[in-house]
Amino acid sequence: MAEGRWMKKFLTLLFVLSLGACQPAETPAPESAAFALSFSAAASPETLDGRLLLLLSKDDSSEPRFQVRPGVDAVQMFGMNVDGLAPGEAVILDDSVFGYPHDSLADVPPGEYFVQAVLHKYDTFTLGNGKIVKLPMDQGEGQQWESSPGNLYSEPRMLSVTATSLPVPIVLDQVIESIVPPEDTEFVKHIKIKSEMLSEFWGRDMFLGAHVLLPAGFDEHPEARYPLAVFHGHFPADFAGFRTEPPDANLECVRNERDNVSCYNRIRQQEAYDFYQQWTGPDMPRMLIIQVQHANPYYDDSYAVNSASMGPYGDAITYELIPHIEEQFRGIGAGWARFLYGGSTGGWEAFGVQVLYPDEFNGTFAACPDSLDFRHYSATNIYENQNAYRMIGAFNTVERPAYRDYLGNISVTMEDENHMELVIGDKSRSGGQWDAWEAVYSPMGADGYPMRIWDKKTGEIDHEVAAYWKENYDMRHILERDWETLGPKLTGKLHVFVGDMDNFHLNNAVYLLEDFLENTSDPYYDGFIDYGDRQEHCWNGDQENPNYISRLRYNTMYIPRILDRLLTTAPAGADVTSWRY
Prior knowledge:
CATH architecture of the largest domain: 3-Layer(aba) Sandwich
Strand content: 15-25%
Mean pLDDT: 93
CATH class of the largest domain: Alpha Beta
Helix content: 25-40%
Number of helices: 12
Low-confidence stretches: 1-30
Largest sheet: 8 strands, antiparallel
Number of strands: 25
CATH topology of the largest domain: Rossmann fold
Structural class: alpha+beta
Radius of gyration: 28 Å
Number of domains: 3
């Protein structure tokens, strides 16, 4: 019996071994494309920190770095951090590096691509609170990584992207040149001051700038003191929309595809020249208009409010920059004589600054403002939704849209835009729109960077961070929460314009704002909210002209309304005459 049991075990073992012998030998994983990226000593003799980007395009009509966009027309890109990278030292970018729209190099179809690499350089900041962060300092370009002076890049070339055992070498040997600042003219002056508040926060000298448009007759009327209008918006290289010469007769036409308009560059020049003629004509009220330069290590502007991660930009602009300009250019220097307007980012700034600094300004005209109620943060309710990228049901999920046209056609999703930003920079460092909002609205994390409102890869929302946003930057909530004290200070000051088919769904938040304002009577807000039928971003209140014209006329649209409010609200004894020549 014992011998029989032994024989049975032996035969079983023999059978198992024979099965193993029939299995194929383990094969190595298939090779994938990879690149060896380095920069030359001629481009930089120093070690560098930053974000290394690799761009692949099928279009060789322009450099890939200028083709980056989300959605159906996206180019392929990958991004990785480098710390202390030395000249000539190669780093391997392979299929483990996150990309967009394909997550991995292994997913990119083999073929010929127009390839370019860019190194977006980071500086090290030791913040006033002691935290150390690495961020891209603006170099005068308005926080645009693809054109930021000092960034390194490679000449684009056509390469075969296929599985290989040897990484393809790419050398970044080009440097983006410095930007020449604009010169002062008769009407436009350029101001730059060191901000003590911001310098203390950032742990290094930080500056604020502005382009100041002077009224006609400024030098001829030294006794005049002027009202001030703050025209908020994205980073202005110079005072936008003002031109003292007729359109260039030899200007080559450039078509505006978005609006299906030919020679839009010529239209822009004509509108800018028309504004100059009105500005110097007899019917235009004399005042100062400024456009603020407040690009920072996170975005092309600061949103003009105080922020845990960006610093006290609201106070610095309101209490350092504006008084400096008013003193130098004979501003009246009082809240009743200051006004705000702008569109999109500038629309949010114009509205938010009026709400948060109610006594310092006498009215806001906010066009197509970024979300004023985070229950409609684009297509996401950050308080109730679990995921920013998808609507999730029991058996299916549907992607949330980010961009639509006036007919409702979707071309970009929330995930598209956020994944593209994550490739360009982690820790809110992409310089993109979603990261900018995060840098402004979020509390600072333990690592010194803004806390994520949602997981950038998955879209899962952090509702504790959302609660912080609500109490500090949700304008509709703040108005409702504090209306007892804010209402009397804001009566007659709030004016909002938005198209009801805004490309970024910004009209949805305005509906909620209107619900509160129109149903509150103690006191009634006594302003107005206006909608443009089937109008896209950035409609600003003109019911007579197409959007591509009216968005070039912010100044001429709002200055007459500012004059009306000035003359009806000026306190007794105020100067309403010296500037009315």
